Amino acid sequence: MIADLSGLKGAIVRSRASRQCLRIRGGGTKDFYGETLQGHVLETRGLAGIIDYEPTELVITARAGTLLKDVEDVLASHHQMLGFEPPRFNGRATLGGTVAAASSGPRRAYCGAVRDFILGLRMLDGRGEDLRFGGRVMKNVAGFDVSRLMAGSLGTLGLFTEITLKTLPRPPAEATLRLELDQPRALACMNQWAARPLPLSATAWHEGLLYVRLSGADAAVRAARRALGGEWISDAGTFWDDLREHRIAPLNTAEFLWRVSVPSTAPALPLAGPSWIEWGGALRWVPGPQNIEALRSLVAGLGGHVTAYRCPQKPREGVFHSLAPGLAALHRRLKAVFDPEQIFNRGRLYPDM
After folding, report:
1. Which end of the chain is more exposed for a tag (fewer CB within 10 A), N or C?
2. pLDDT in the model for residue 352
3. Angstrom distance (rounded) from CA 150 to CA 123
């Protein structure tokens, strides 16, 4: 395990000279995600530690190999949190891997995605050059935001070394409600509530039950509870943690799991199986074998896309929804700029890229 920048730079320079592909690996919690893994493993866990944290400024900077749980523990000691509520994968997920995979949890639809919280980023490109983007204060983010571009790149553009994120205060009050609703009615309610001044922070539906989390000032949470009705769950923290970490069936048991992203207003999908719905209707988890071409055609017609989140074998149609020609060309140009020899995570996003 390489624990310093000079060692990582040396590994990149040597790989570039030999045209050897490198597979960037932090905690290894997302090895299942994306296309087939290729190349020599380059560990980043040694590059760990919090560099700077200003609670009064709501900004934290940490090395990419830092465990996500360590970042969250420090924030919690100051009654703060990461607003995108990322999964921790049993405490093994790193900050760099979380950003690379753009991993967001139940709060994402109401507080923002990973990229919305990135203020700055430091990385090594495919030449071994040390690059910095953004800053450590919110006002420094302007123009073409390369830092946020890296969210979801799966390490194909470079090796992250430091990441600066904005944080959020923990809400003073939270409550979770459970309502018995079928899927069409649950989708309608989630969309109606999103247009109202309610302190929503998470929603989830599964097999006739809709879960709604409210977060904010105590008075606002109490008023929303009265307005929405349903059954109050006195201790729902475990439920949201289990959903966030996929410790709930069939999310944790399905051999095939498809991640379907659609507009929140999309109707119920005509698919069999005990799916979970999150993010106000915009994220739908579909378990079990599927005709991927038919599923993608259906979802594309609704303005969405499908990811083969977990499969025993990578589908020949690709793990990720194919890009439009113009967008694919832009991806290739970015790859050519940041990693001209294509040594980082080759083919991890798309087999031909």
Report:
1. N
2. 80
3. 10
Residue with tokens 């395990």: 1
pLDDT band at 141 (very low <50, low <70, confident <90, very high): very low
Give 329's DSSP letter: H
Domain boundaries, the chain: 5-169+332-338, 173-244, 257-310
pLDDT bin (cut points 50, 70, 90) of residue 308 is very high
- Residue partners of 244: CB distance under 8 A and separation at least 6: 85, 86, 87, 88, 105, 106
Distance (Å, whole) CA 200 – CA 179: 15
Whether the CB-CB separation of 221 and 214 falls below 8 Å is answered with yes
Give the fold, CATH level 3, of 5-169+332-338.
3.30.465
Residue from 216, 219, 217, 209 nearest 189 by CA = 209
State the DSSP string of 201-238: EEEEEETTEEEEEEEE-HHHHHHHHHHH-SEEES--HH
CATH code assigned to 173-244: 3.30.70
Q: What confidence score (pLDDT) does residue 135 get?
A: 77
Chain-centre distance for alpha carbon 138: 21
State how far the Cα of 353 lies from the Cα of 346, in Å rounded to an integer. 7
Backbone angles phi, psi at 72, to 5 degrees: -70, -35
Take residue 303 and report the two structure tokens written for it. Answer: 């303005």
Query: What would the pLDDT profile of 17-75 be if each residue is shown by its tens digit?
Result: 999 999 999 999 999 999 999 999 999 989 999 999 999 999 999 999 999 999 999 99
Burial 286-308 (b: 16+ CB within 10 A, else e): bbeebebeebbebbeeeebbbbb
Three-state secondary structure call for residue 175: strand
pLDDT, residue 90, reads: 92
